[in-house]
Structure formats: structure tokens, C-alpha cells
Write a structure and sequence with these properties.
It is built from eight helices and seven strands. By secondary structure, the chain is of the alpha/beta class. Helix 2 (about 30-40) crosses helix 3. A seven-stranded mixed β-sheet has the order 3-2-1-4-5-7-6.
């Protein structure tokens, strides 16, 4: 299944689970909580959120005094942005940013949307523009959005792999991971309540 930008439209974000989300606009609260503890964990001086949707995480970092920018693939989501620092773009091409531009690069439930053949390019790009850390939340095999489409999951999750697969993938790319920060994220109270536990990865320089 080939997924284009047009797929991520109003029905995707606000479609009452017919395609994916019930209403992404209602996710602001939990994403603010996520941004708060992510800020405490990494203490970044600058942030790039790739696949930021409406930009709730970007806005929260800005409120915390951290310069933050968002990249979003969906024109519809960009049109709903809650802050001006949201740019339409693609994780596979972050060439507008120089190497080591951002202290922290975030990608929450991003890589499962990328075709497997493009994963190396995508991961190398987020790692390239990061100065210190890349914080990834990946929808792994068996953890799909079962509330979507009467239990069938999000159809744009085209690359669903196990955690072991991802660990091997990062190893093959010779990218280091910060296991202490990973452990903290995977055992955070919000991770357990949101069923995110075991799905966080922290790539480092």
C-alpha cells in the first residue's frame, strides 16, 4: 500500500477511529505530559520534532523556554498547527538542516509509517541533524492502534517490526544507544498507562 500526503487528511486525524485517530485535537494533554518528562530526561537546548502532527510537543517545549521546531508530512496537520514553528517536510530529507543542528530530535510513532526500503535514509537523517540524542517511540509488531478501524489498526503503519528487529537494525547502522535513558522512558508511569513501554529507543552520538 502506497501512502501519500493526501492520506493524512481530516478523516485520518479527526475521523472517530474510522481510519486512525478518534480526534488528534484531544491528544494535547497527554502530549504535554510527554513533553514535560522528556524535557526533564534530556534537558535539551534545542528540539526538532519530526512527524509532529499539530505540534503540541513543539509548543510545550517552547513554553518551557526551549527553542523547538516541528516537521510534518501532512499538509492537513500543518494547517491545524498550534504554533507557527511547524514546517511541511519529510523525515527522509532533512537537508534544510545542517549536521548537529538540534540537541534533541524526537520522532513519536513515526518510523512505522516509512517503507522498509527507506528506513536507513530516514534514521540516518534524524541522527545527522541531532547533536546529542534521537528519541524514538516506535509502534512495534503487536502494538498497533487496535482501536482504529474496528480493531484492524492504522493502515499507514506499513513497517511493523519487533523490538529485537529494531535493535538489530540500529546496530547494523552502527548507531549508539543510551540504554539508561531508554530504560527510564520505557518504565515511566505514562509509558505504562499508554502502553508505550518497550517501544522507546534513544539513539546517541
Amino acid at each position: 500500500m502506497k501512502i501519500t500526503k493526501d492520506f493524512y487528511n481530516q478523516d485520518y486525524f479527526e475521523g472517530k477511529n474510522k481510519v486512525a485517530y478518534d480526534s488528534y485535537a484531544k491528544a494535547g494533554g497527554l502530549l504535554i505530559t510527554f513533553a514535560n518528562w522528556t524535557n526533564e530526561l534530556f534537558k535539551p537546548e534545542s528540539v526538532l520534532d519530526v512527524g509532529c502532527a499539530y505540534g503540541f510537543v513543539v509548543k510545550r517545549f517552547q513554553e518551557l523556554g526551549v527553542p523547538a521546531t516541528g516537521i510534518e508530512y501532512s499538509p492537513y496537520a500543518v494547517s491545524r498547527a498550534v504554533t507557527q514553528e511547524i514546517i511541511e517536510g519529510d523525515v527522509r530529507d532533512l537537508s534544510r538542516f545542517k549536521k548537529n543542528t538540534f540537541d534533541l530530535v524526537i520522532g513519536t510513532e513515526l518510523l512505522e509509517h516509512i517503507p522498509e526500503k527507506d528506513l536507513t535514509k530516514a534514521v540516518k537523517e534524524v541522527h545527522r541533524v541531532s547533536k546529542r540524542f534521537v528519541f524514538l517511540l516506535i509502534c512495534t509488531a503487536g502494538s498497533d492502534h487496535i482501536e482504529s478501524r474496528d480493531g484492524k489498526g492504522d493502515p499507514s503503519h506499513i513497517t511493523l517490526k519487533t523490538r529485537d528487529w529494531w535493535e538489530t537494525f540500529f546496530q547494523k547502522l552502527k548507531i549508539k544507544r543510551d540504554l539508561e535513558k531508554e530504560n527510564f522512558a520505557n518504565n515511566h508511569q505514562q509509558s505504562k498507562s499508554m502502553k508505550w513501554a518497550g517501544r522507546f529507543f534513544v539513539l546517541s552520538k
